[in-house]
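Handout, section B. The chain below has 508 residues.
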Amino acid sequence: MSSEQNSTTPNGVQIQPGRRLPDFLQSVNLKYVKLGYHYLVSHLLTLCLVPLMAVIILEASRLDPDDIHQLWLHLQYNLVSVIVFSAFLVFGSTVYIMTRPRSVYLVDYSCYRPPSHLQVKFHQFMEHSRLTGDFDESSLEFQRKILERSGLGEETVVPEAMHSLPPRPSMAAAREEAEQVMFGALDNLFANTNVKPKDIGILVVNCSLFNPTPSLSAMIVNKYKLRGNIRSFNLGGMGCSAGVIAIDLAKDMLQVHRNTYAVVVSTENITQNWYFGNKKSMLIPNCLFRVGGAAVLLSNKSADKRRAKYKVVHVVRTHRGADDKAFKCVYQEQDDVGKTGVSLSKDLMAIAGGALKTNITTLGPLVLPISEQLLFFLTLVAKKLFNAKVKPYIPDFKLAFDHFCIHAGGRAVIDELEKNLQLLPEHVEASRMTLHRFGNTSSSSIWYELAYTEAKGRMRKGNRVWQIAFGSGFKCNSAVWQALRNVKPSTNGPWEDCIHRYPVQLSL
């Protein structure tokens, strides 16, 4: 190590003493060079068209009445060509209007806010686990360490059946949990939107681990007396990314069925899926998963654009199930003594990283400005042709999105995406605070995060939101939304009683 010390500028740039450029570095913030380049390339077409339009207008202004009369006579003598051209123009416009994808609007959504009496503090969780008599000392200590490092706070909720001693993971208790969550979110959604349940034409429900007969979607049809010709779907076993899959399915259905509403309900059920064994890899879900759910109202009615919060821009889905390691990295199974639980592989983060890489490779060209795509391409060419040691350029997704809703699967998931996507702490604040307040609510976590951003008053018209979710199989799915107005939180939102306390300082 050299004893010579480096100096640091206010911008955090280290400079060797013999290579100082104080005037340049103190007067120019280097990040603005990149922003300027991005603006230049992104608006290159506009910048080229402006001079062209100016020339055309200038030439048109020089035309006298005789020139205009000669132009009119020329068109009269070529009447057949004009008619044919007009016919093609009308025909092409008609085909485009008839075949273009219909816009799908997110009118509103509602996240279930569990009752405070079902909250579980860390010491209650550990004491309850000890009193059940199902866990040995090694498993109890393992769960304690996971809780301390999880990023969860002291106000997360477990279902009522898990508060009993002994716990009662019965079918009736699981149905009760599902009803409380789904109906609680739906009641609030219908109240906030003034939409009648009879007006719903499409219903999609996703819940990975609880799939009774009749289905959860049938329970909703029965509760709200939905119409007999409703298109209902029940997605099971698709993990924490199923919420985006459900949105994609509803979006596709709205392309086919005109002038209707679609409701998507995303939830998970804990009651019958608590693990009462001592296999370490199957104990982690006990420490992370908590009660939660969300109901989303989508519409393809043009009249709803005025009151809708967002518009669907893109949905990109990635499935790595063909790879055996990816397929089994989140796996429901029985342990050596026959107790059922969900096992999480030690390779989970690496597999999630690979799935994310595939997903953003598809998503990037759809959302990134042309400047970022050019930099990525040129770096790739330089690496191939000139120097194999050239590091690949990581596109700056902060130029494409204003807000990020990263699935709150755990602190490690959020940490890895923050690092790999080169995000700032404010970009992952919604994810960290959702994990702290509500825990891992599975497929609904991305909606609690969106609600956090709204509750903080940060959502502005035109802002783009990227929802990223990971799930068993293994899947990585993305949904991109655009705000249609300055979005305020809906009545009785999940953060209504606590947003003033956030963000909180998290211990590392």
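Note. Confidence is low (pLDDT under 50) at residues 1-33. Compare this with the example in section A.
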